[in-house]
Prior knowledge:
Blueprint (H helix, E strand, L loop, with lengths): L4 E7 L4 H15 L5 E5 L2 E8 L2 E8 L4 E6 L3 H8 L4 E4 L11 H7 L15 E4 L8 E8 L4 E8 L2 E8 L3 E3 L1
Antiparallel strand pairs: 1-5, 1-6, 2-5, 3-4, 7-8, 7-11, 8-9, 9-10
Amino acid sequence: MAEANWYVVHTYSGYENKVKVDIEKTIENRGLQEQILEVSVPLQSVIEIKNGVEKAVDKKMFPGYVLIHMVMNDDTWYVVRNTRGVTGFVGPGSKPVPLSEDEMAGLGFMGRSVVVDFEVGDTVVVISGAWKDTTGAIRAINEHKKTATINVEMFGRETPVELAFTELRKL
Length: 171
């Protein structure tokens, strides 16, 4: 299998989050989780002062652009390129150029790894969010998205729920 790289996609201004959601839905519908690993709209926390009140606000680092970690092939290129709001990949002509590791490190995306003390099969408790104080067994771990899928009982049935690593604690 080919190696996944980060690519930059140009979008209509203000459509970055819509493009991200649409691509993630397409990944789910077409089963491309192994080929398109992550879709990101890089944000930067900024303090704004309005009327003498400080407020922390997330601003887009690159308005009009979305970063995608994917294996480049005809299928993935087609899915991304034909998503509503996408104007094209960044690169000469129609050939997308992946970002180098140095470029990604400069953006602060590389080198951040999360070490978790649980694995598939472990029982965990949810420590925040809608499922707080719920316990469940881990069914799957997605290191790229930094999430774990656990089974919770809802309406008398086991239901899989995907939660962030930060919401879980090992029992």
